[in-house]
DNA sequence: GCTGCTTATGCACTTTTTTGCAATTTTTAT
DNA sequence: ATAAAAATTGCAAAAAAGTGCATAAGCAGC
């Protein structure tokens, strides 16, 4: 059995049963436990599973165990959120994606803001729900366990029927040459659809992700109206984006 | 059972019952009490629970900032939930509404159950999301602040396209003469649509609501397959429903 | 074919983790 | 106060992980 084949089998087993044991995999595939361990190490580095003593667990299992995960770069995300909040005016229709930056934005909204928020992100919806004057429109479809947003043809179709004033997008990689890129096919579809529908597109990202590239192209910079990072807008790293016509806050 | 898996189970149990006993966990998982104690120690260091003499308590129990809001007749609802869980078989498509009884049902689902749950209730979706093997389909539409479920034409249209095996409905009033009645026009639309689409309709209610009436008619008893209350099924108050052809659990 | 290179795998060995047990101390309840 | 239950501590055995190395397999270029 080839290495790739073996690793694919392991990932399949993890997704199926949510756990695998090193020693049973070893007898099952008939390789040494060392090899299995090395496979598990590689796969966990790629984020396909969570390696634990004696085997591995699926990612979704890990989420259950530790739902109160600490948010990376939380302070920076709060700075970003506060800049983003200023763009929101009473009565606007606002489309948002998911991700920790968007959640931080949702938490930073003034309690008495009255506006309409549209999203397929369950954590974001839960936050919007707590605001008495915010109307929430839920985008329905199959819920993705990883990203906790609804993904699929239904969601795409619904977004196409909307024309929100503003779209807030948390992004994973942005680059002056390639624009916005990402690593999940379905999420990319959704983001493209959101960008196409919205009057104004606002991208939120921590500076760390600037000038990084992911494998799938989402959109080039021309479709982006505003870019928000935690840095001051005269920071050198941001100047190429200003030159490309993006408003940087 | 892997260590992490065991700890995940303990956290799940704590969140579910608000307390766990070291010795019952020990016999349940079949490891020594020492091991359980060590797990509880680790979990409490991570802030997942509060370790006390003889076991552990859930954090929400002691956390002053987030007092566990008391659900009316919670114990009865748990009894109902546990009867309802028995109806669920692997791989089923299950449509559920909202309400505290349904949430209790969601919390009582076996951790490893694999099935597909369809709902527009945000609190229910959040619960389903925590189960690694449950696929969640979100019904989108405008979110009602009161009931925390999506309501509207879109939701109705989507439900009409489904044919779930089972439908769990928390109900507000049931009466031998008028059947099921309710007090919110939009919710009634939704419930009617859910009933019409499903192969089997299961109604959940605390006994207190039996023989009460609300202003809007949802459906008569003939459409109801199963009625679940916290009472034993030979209780006198339930007999008229048995006579009317409803299976009472 | 062969050679040199990288990659993959298994083995022997050491280290770490996990777990259960016994002895002792602390806490709880009667 | 005294007995029972639970916690702590130290320790040892077993399982798993990590490490270094030798062998084997695959592959480009000659």
Estimate percent helicity of chain A: 25-40%
Oligomeric state: homodimer
Largest interchain contact: A-B, 41 and 37 residues
Distance between the termini of chain A: 53 Å
Task: Please provide the count of β strands of chain A.
Answer: 15
Please state how the strands of the largest beta sheet of chain A are arranged side by side.
6-5-4-9-12-14-15
Shape, per Cα inertia axes of chain A: globular
Return Rg of chain A in Å.
Answer: 20 Å
Main beta sheet of chain A: 7 strands, parallel
- Mean pLDDT over the full residue set of chain A: 87
Query: What structural class is derived from the secondary structure elements of chain A?
Result: alpha/beta
Care to describe what's here?
Two copies of one chain form a homodimer. In chain A, the strands form four sheets. The first copy, chain A, has a seven-stranded parallel sheet, sandwiched between helices. The first copy, chain A, has a three-stranded antiparallel sheet with strand order 1-3-2. The first copy, chain A, is globular. Chain A is 39% helix and 21% strand. The model of chain A is unreliable at 64-70 (pLDDT under 50). Chain A has ten helices and 15 strands. Chain A has 249 residues and is α/β, with parallel strands linked by helices. Chain A has helices at residues 3-17, 22-29, 33-45, 59-65, 74-85, 100-108, 122-129, 153-160, 185-197, 239-243, and strands at residues 19-21, 50-52, 55-57, 93-96, 115-119, 134-138, 141-143, 150-151, 166-170, 173-175, 179-182, 201-204, 216-219, 226-228, 247-248. The A-B interface holds A 18-19, 21, 50, 52-55, 57-58, 60-68, 120, 122, 125-126, 128-129, 132, 135-143, 145, 148, 150, 154-155, 158 and B 2-5, 7-8, 11-12, 46-48, 111-112, 120, 122, 125-126, 129-133, 135-143, 145, 148, 150, 154-155, 158. Chain A binds a DNA duplex (30 and 30 nucleotides) through residues 3, 22-23, 31-35, 37-38, 53-54.
